[in-house]
Design brief:
This protein is mainly α and 186 residues long. It has nine helices and no strands.
Length: 186
């Protein structure tokens, strides 16, 4: 049982507010950047992560114990992001997401989070990949999910995940080479 599960159980079963605070502290940043891969807007990703934690705090859903707590939490966040995208597509709204100032601020936040120049290049190349490739690479390399955990989050088989990782790495390598990235080995 990982720390997130025990913190959540303390919060849900015993009403210990510090359990929820620990979860938010431990998983907030990673969840935001994972959700940013879906919505391509750091501010919306922050709101979606907040919605995820609000759902935990108010509805207190039960973890079925199928995977790790982190897998379960990211799955909830993913579902909230998908619902947001569907609502937004239905409304066909023109929002401030396209404002150039917000995009430059988003890049500044990413630069603060990813300090080294090589990591910035990899991050930018990731954004140019298909969303599915971006998602699998983010889960496996930045969030250290196993193939099985990533398969659960993405609702695919482990074999499909292995194939997807292979194709995503190949696509990332190609993208990085086009941008003149010098690397030892991916």
């Amino acid at each position: 049982m990982d720390n997130g599960a025990s913190s959540y159980r303390r919060f849900r079963d015993e009403g210990d507010e510090s359990g929820l605070a620990e979860i938010i502290k431990d998983y907030r940043d990673g969840l935001i950047f994972y959700l940013n891969g879906y919505v391509n807007n750091i501010y919306v990703a922050e709101e979606l992560a907040e919605d995820t934690f609000v759902l935990l705090g108010t509805k207190k859903p039960k973890d079925k114990g199928i995977g790790s707590f982190k897998t379960w939490l990211y799955t909830i966040g993913r579902n909230i992001a998908i619902n947001y995208i569907k609502r937004r597509a239905r409304l066909k709204e023109n929002s401030l997401d396209d404002c150039q100032e917000l995009i430059s601020e988003e890049e500044n936040l990413e630069i603060v989070f990813i300090k080294e120049e090589r990591k910035i290049m990899v991050h930018r190349a990731l954004k140019k990949l298909k969303p599915e490739y971006h998602q699998i690479l983010w889960l496996t390399y930045f969030e250290d999910f196993s193939n099985k955990e990533a398969a659960m989050v993405m609702k695919k088989s482990v074999h499909n995940i292995e194939t997807l990782i292979y194709r995503a790495r190949k696509s990332l390598k190609s993208q990085l080479e086009m941008e003149g990235f010098i690397y030892e080995e991916l």
